[in-house]
Design goal:
Largest sheet: none
Radius of gyration: 17 Å
Region (Disordered): 81-111
Bound molecules: zinc ion
Shape: elongated
Length: 111
């Protein structure tokens, strides 16, 4: 099936086919903290996709009315709410950061 958005870069605002904007927004907030990093892991430090990332992916589908029934949607909403409160700290890992933190290379040092 075709999605009206890029699953790798879901928009912050729910797309037209979204049936649960709340789940969408919660998923989107979590999504920013769980991206594929340069080293192949998740930006949260877990192997990718981590538990939260999988929850996010289910959340996006559920928000579109896909894959889950109403009961599961409520369950997902609860779990996403819980995950979001865990991630309430304004920590925003940037996947492009990791490549700037190379351990000191021996040899040349420009001054
Ligand atoms: Zn993660």
């Amino acid at each position: 099936m075709r999605l009206s958005f890029d699953p790798e870069e879901p928009p912050a605002d729910p797309p037209a086919e979204c049936v649960s904007p709340t789940i969408w927004r919660l998923s989107h907030r979590l999504h920013r903290c769980h991206l594929l990093a340069d080293d192949g892991g998740c930006t949260c430090g877990e192997p990718f996709p981590c538990r939260s990332r999988r929850l996010v992916e289910r959340g996006f589908l559920a928000a579109l009315g896909l894959g889950v029934g109403a009961a599961s949607r409520q369950d997902l909403l609860d779990r996403l709410t819980a995950e979001n409160s865990l991630n309430a700290q304004p920590v925003r890992p940037d996947p492009s950061d990791s490549r700037h933190h190379r351990p000191g290379l021996p040899g040349k040092e420009e001054t």
